[in-house]
Amino acid sequence: MTVAIWLQMILLFCGIFSAVGGFVGVNIGTALSNLPSAVNTVAILRAQQITHVRLFDADAHMLNALSNTGIEVMVSVTNEEVLGIGESPSTAAAWVNKNVAAYVPSTNITAICVGSEVFTSIPHAAPVLVPAMNYLYRALVASDLNHRVKVSTPHSMGVVPRPFPPSTATFNTTWNSTMYQILQFLRNTDSFYMLNAYPYYEYVKSNGIFPLEYALFKPLSSVKQIVDPNTLFRYNSMFDALVDATYNSIAALNFSGIPVVVTETGWPRLGGANEPDATAENAKTYINNLIRRVSNDSGPPSQLTIPINTYIYELFDEDKRPGPVSERNWGVIFANGTTVYDLSLSTSESLDKNSSTAFCVAKSGVDDSSLRDGLNWACGPGQANCAAIQQGRPCYVPNTLRNHASYAFNDYYQRMRSSGGTCDFSGAATITTIDPSYGSCRFTGSLNSSTGRLFPAPALGPIGPSSGVSKNLVQFGTVVAFVVTVFLVNANYLVA
Ligand SMILES: *[C@@H]1O[C@H](CO)[C@@H](O)[C@H](O)[C@H]1NC(C)=O
Ligand SMILES: *[C@@H]1O[C@H](CO)[C@@H](O)[C@H](O)[C@H]1NC(C)=O
Ligand SMILES: *[C@@H]1O[C@H](CO)[C@@H](O)[C@H](O)[C@H]1NC(C)=O
Ligand SMILES: *[C@@H]1O[C@H](CO)[C@@H](O)[C@H](O)[C@H]1NC(C)=O
Ligand SMILES: *[C@@H]1O[C@H](CO)[C@@H](O)[C@H](O)[C@H]1NC(C)=O
Ligand SMILES: *[C@@H]1O[C@H](CO)[C@@H](O)[C@H](O)[C@H]1NC(C)=O
Ligand SMILES: *[C@@H]1O[C@H](CO)[C@@H](O)[C@H](O)[C@H]1NC(C)=O
Ligand SMILES: *[C@@H]1O[C@H](CO)[C@@H](O)[C@H](O)[C@H]1NC(C)=O
């Protein structure tokens, strides 16, 4: 599947779920030797139908190029700028005027990220972090932009020393008072907590305690269910556990109602000899399953109703970054706009490679009345878009029941399979990998379809019941952490 289709899906669920959240955006780092121009970068974003981006600075060329695109943009105060802004309200005001007020509303700037992982990367600036956020906020108020532009600061998981199990996670007490003030600020300004969450690093750090499948959102074998012993919440992915660890750390300081947005997550597709898990296969699996997970629109177990809006790290490989090989290989799109690895959203492993070519059409040998019933149902209660098979439209000819039924069956299937719709129609329909499109008639989901859109597949389904019993306690430091459990009982009983 092409990245265009993949990203079309992102756009699509952004559209579908925009009212309640659940979007996937991308981070755009610029430390690459063949960095496309801002205009070309935005052309790539638009071609891939990316709707949310985060910049690590407030580059004027990018902000201009992003104007009138509808793309939502988070800009960043760099770590170098945090001290100056935290020490001077007028510096903060000048920053907002130059980098935000000058572009809004034509560039849809929705947030300012104040620094990047300040506690863990420039701890000496931590004392001025809250003043910096306050000064920026006041400058936004002065420009009457505080309702459309939020202020927050991205944290690494490093601020939560022991994230597993999530129920006992707390922030490192070294930063008690600053974290308290940050949360107060976020709550008072109706903002959100920015979290950089990398199951890749947590997995590597864990030295094999957690299965790789868990980091990659793959179904866990029935003997390796991961359950929080205090809440009995079952965690299907480390991603969910990290988000919940953050919610619980916030709750431990007595705050609630502050949504967590994942400002960075991803997986490197290439690493050095000592980075065996940085592979293209793992990266592809992680990103695809992440998109599926987020598009499902549910929150982590402790916050089921709050979607986990997420920004993928990152758009391009940054070959100029120092550090291990993996540092330079997080990109999902090459500078020439082509996909780095195949990306797809599919309902099952077996359909993985062919999901772009799974079409639902009328089965041969089926009688006309079954086809008519199916057609009527698809275009009626099934809510397929049957405009293209109306007289004068591209798929009207050949004007046969079979052709029209195929078009309608397929449109229904492409729209509904993410929510459980099947290709059946009382036996009148069948799946084919051959694109039924012809001439100017493009079937929904066709790579060349201009109107048809593929829909995101459902997130990982429930894990089946398991059997057997035994409990292995895993120790993290002095805290009894996750229980990796083999249940005697039906594991479903533990799902909250
Ligand atoms: C900008 O983004 C906000 C937040 O999602 C949205 O409500 C608004 O409609 C967008 N504005 C434009 C002009 O696209
Ligand atoms: C908390 O942060 C401080 C300062 O970085 C560090 O020295 C300490 O080890 C951290 N505590 C834990 C439990 O990780
Ligand atoms: C941080 O807060 C916790 C919980 O309220 C408390 O036990 C701890 O003593 C505090 N630490 C510092 C350094 O203030
Ligand atoms: C949170 O609230 C509880 C109950 O009101 C209180 O006992 C506890 O000390 C508070 N914790 C903090 C960190 O403020
Ligand atoms: C795009 O760039 C990548 C990496 O440099 C290269 O492998 C690929 O062939 C290029 N694709 C096109 C169409 O130029
Ligand atoms: C996927 O596509 C390959 C090659 O096009 C084909 O051989 C294989 O049977 C297909 N698999 C499924 C599940 O359709
Ligand atoms: C899609 O378009 C490309 C280029 O226009 C063409 O080569 C290809 O055959 C088309 N595919 C289908 C299924 O029509
Ligand atoms: C969404 O994900 C949650 C948690 O993984 C799961 O419980 C739920 O069934 C999923 N919903 C859908 C519609 O796939």
Automatic annotation (TrEMBL):
InterPro entries: GH (IPR017853), Glyco_hydro_17 (IPR000490), Glyco_hydro_17_plant (IPR044965), X8 (IPR012946). GO terms for cellular component: plasma membrane; plasmodesma; side of membrane. This is glucan endo-1,3-beta-D-glucosidase. Pfam families: Glyco_hydro_17, X8. The lineage of its organism: Eukaryota, Viridiplantae, Streptophyta, Embryophyta, Tracheophyta. Its main location: membrane. Keywords: Cell membrane, Disulfide bond, Glycoprotein, Glycosidase, GPI-anchor, Hydrolase, Lipoprotein, Membrane, Plant defense, Signal, Transmembrane, Transmembrane helix. It catalyses: Hydrolysis of (1->3)-beta-D-glucosidic linkages in (1->3)-beta-D-glucans. The keyword Repressor does not apply. Its EC number is 3.2.1.39. It is found in: Cell membrane. It is a lipid-anchor; GPI-anchor. One of its GO terms (biological process) is carbohydrate metabolic process. Residues 358-443 form the X8 domain. Belongs to the glycosyl hydrolase 17 family. GO terms for molecular function: glucan endo-1,3-beta-D-glucosidase activity. It is an enzyme of class 3 (hydrolase). It comes from the Eukaryota. The chain crosses the membrane at residues 473-495. Residues 1-21 form the signal peptide.
